[in-house]
Amino acid sequence: MNREQTAGASIRISRLEKRFGSVFAVDGVDIYIAAGEFLALLGPSGSGKTTILMSVAGFEFPTSGNIVVDSEDLTYVPANQRNLGMVFQNYTLFPHMSILDNVAFPLKMRGMPKAERHAKAEEALATVRLAGYGGRFPSQLSGGQQQRIALARAIVYRPRVLLMDEPLSALDKNLREDMQLEIKRLHAELGITVIFVTHDQSEALTMADRVAVLKDGKIQQIGPSRELYERPANLFTAGFIGEMNFIDVTVESTGDATSVLLPSGERWNVPATAAVDTVQAGQKAILGFRPERLGLGAAGSDYTLQVTLSDVVYAGSALLLIGKLPDGTEIRARLPGASDLTALTRGATATFSVPKEAILLYAGGAK
Ligand SMILES: Nc1ncnc2c1ncn2[C@@H]1O[C@H](COP(=O)(O)OP(=O)(O)O)[C@@H](O)[C@H]1O
Ligand SMILES: [Mg+2]
Questions:
Q1: Which CATH class is domain 243-363?
Q2: Whose CA is nearest to atom 13 of ligand 1?
Q3: What is the CATH number of domain 3-237?
Q4: Which atom of ligand 1 is nearest to 26's Cα?
């Protein structure tokens, strides 16, 4: 097979719905994934990620909606006829089979003669950088190596699509980060389409071309990492991705700028472009801004906050300051390490400034 034939397939998920009794596990999901794209499904536990992936894999059949891979409607096609690669959290290698036989297993199921399937399995082992490990048994490999074997087994028959459900969550941090890069490299090398499920926002942001954020079976936002981080479309995404400060405010007027009243009695005129939601005078609203965008001291800014420091945490590359506004709202600032720290002790007062471009404004409601 040459590269042309083995490159990825496009996937169109349309109006996907899956009910378990009265639970809507997936509730009207639409996603188009381009051929060769790397998409992450990100959301808290129970948000429907696995159910979407299982529907694409063919291990679950939806209550309604369609799944089309390239131009073929696979919605009700059995899993074993879809030719999609799958890697789970628990890598489920066969313990009494050699590594080579484990990797060659999908080819054996497809009736490929032994010499040929062993040659292909050796190739797949080389792709995951474990050439020469074929003679060992799963118990003789580390967790990370076993997960790479599971990956080799999933790609050995050159699927058009690779589906991964929290494949790295059982690994410790360093190994997980190595494997993240390894999977990205493999994606670039093979050109296949990847859907990667994770509940870890930093994993999703670093690995994927685009991220779909899910909650209660519904997509909250879908877009490139940077877009999700810099302009979260709603309060859920704003709170779920990265760290975000929130302040409850009241809208006083709208127009070229939006005037909001802070709990301290101060007024901020934020640019109209800061409003992610449409807001109206008299309504409650919520200001959001990232801790790493804050500066220490007023520095001529129109947007300052007086806080009492409740914690000063030295965190290597950054200094984390946790302050409280007079009404008790907690505000975090992450400052590059080199700042002068002598005056920053618990109980001291400090002024934070917020750059205009960092401010986001959402309509009021539960965070
Ligand atoms: N086989 C099942 N039977 C009943 N409820 C299920 C089943 N599978 C999933 N659910 C429910 O569907 C929702 C979504 O589950 P799931 O897709 O596993 O979420 P995630 O992978 O994001 O944690 C949850 O409320 C879960 O309890
Ligand atoms: Mg899951």
A1: mainly beta
A2: 25
A3: 3.40.50.300
A4: 14
Q: Where in the chain is the domain with CATH 3.40.50.300?
A: 3-237
pLDDT tens-digit map of 235-285: 999 999 999 999 999 999 999 899 999 999 999 999 999 999 999 999 999
Domain with CATH 2.40.50.100 in the chain: 243-363
13 beta partners: 31, 67
What pLDDT is attached to residue 357? 94
The residue with tokens 């429907």 is 48
**17, 24, 47, 51: which to mutate for ligand 1, most atoms within 8 A of CB?**
51
pTM of the model: 0.91
Gap from CA of 48 to ligand 1 centroid (Å): 6
Q: In sequence order, what are the beta bridge partners of 257?
A: 271
- Residue 107 has phi, psi (to 5 degrees) of -75, -35
Identity of the residue numbered 196:
F
The tokens describing 47, both together, are 């948000």
Q: Which of 16, 23, 89, 163 to mutate to test the pocket of ligand 1 (most atoms within 8 A of CB)?
A: 23
For residue 46, report the distance from its CA to the centre of ligand 1, in Å.
6
